[in-house]
Amino acid sequence: MRREPLVFALAAALLLSMQFAHTESPKIDPAVERMMSSSDLVPVIVIFRDGCSPDLGGINVRYRYHLINGISAICERDEIKRLAEDDGVEGIYLDGDVSVTAPVSSQGGDSVCPSEMVDAERVWAEGIDGSGVIVAIIDSGIDKNHPDLVGKIIGERNFVEGEDTTEDLVGHGTLCAGIIAGSGKASGGRYRGIAPGALLLNVRVIGSDGNGKVSDIIAGIEWSLDNGARVLSLSLAGLNLGETNPPVTMAADKAMDAGAVVCVAAGNNG
């Protein structure tokens, strides 16, 4: 019985494992490692150890965060390896993608009314309607000319590169804003938001293609807190707080430590 193919296969596997053992670092997230193998430039979020501020050299920094001790940057492979060797660096994570889907009109029958689904009238009757609360819609933007949202937006900021607007070019952010704080004017009060007395911050982190970056979300969380938000709405696909994207999880934890309520989508399929 010939064993040469098996021997060669085992030898190849051993060489491959030795190669990865040589290049891997416990500080570099596996998603970053995978991208390093196929790309010269990798979008990353670098977290520093408490009290540390490593030398960044000529790294192309996008954001320097104050809510978490770190930066987002576009790094070359050698720069990532150098950062991983720095004692002041805690971890290097991929600046991952998030997305939203454009709203779809219901087919037949009455549209869903979220305030009715949660029986919001019971708390409205007690004088609780969101008045005095600022909610940050960290999403695709808001249509501030929508009848239900006129006068609701007290601040806005765009974080999407290459698109100089805070307008909602997808529709998702406007939908979320209406569910939260819509006046119901366009429907004669029928489709009022759950907290119609609340005011809104329009934090645009999703572009016209429905996609965004984790780095922009963290920057949006920071800006929201700096501008008085008490509630943050993050209705975004691809954001799995507590399991992936540790930097944005850290940012959400810090926001909660600061007293904000962080609301994250858990899926639309039950």
Describe this protein's structure.
The protein is α/β, with parallel strands linked by helices. 29% of the residues lie in helices and 21% in strands. The protein is built from eight helices and eleven strands. It has helices at residues 4-23, 30-36, 77-84, 114-117, 121-124, 172-181, 214-226, 246-257; strands spanning 41-48, 60-64, 70-76, 89-94, 97-99, 134-139, 153-158, 199-204, 211-213, 231-234, 261-264. The protein has a five-stranded parallel β-sheet, sandwiched between helices. Strands 2-3-1-4 form a four-stranded antiparallel β-sheet. Helix 6 links the parallel strand 7 and strand 8. The longest helix is centred in the first third of the chain and has 20 residues, at 4-23. 39% of the residues are buried.
Give a quick rundown of the structure.
The protein is α/β, with parallel strands linked by helices and 270 residues long. Helices cover 29% and strands 21% of the residues. It has a 5-stranded parallel beta sheet, with helices on both faces. The protein has a 4-stranded antiparallel beta sheet with strand order 2-3-1-4. Strands 5-9 form a two-stranded antiparallel sheet.
State the end-to-end distance. Answer: 55 Å
Q: What characterizes the major β-sheet?
A: 5 strands, parallel
Number of helices: 8
Determine the mean pLDDT.
Answer: 89
Shape: elongated
Give me the strand/helix succession.
HHEEEHEEHHEEHEEHEHE
Return the structural class.
alpha/beta
Give the amount of beta strand, in percent.
15-25%
Number of strands: 11
Q: Any idea what the radius of gyration is?
A: 23 Å
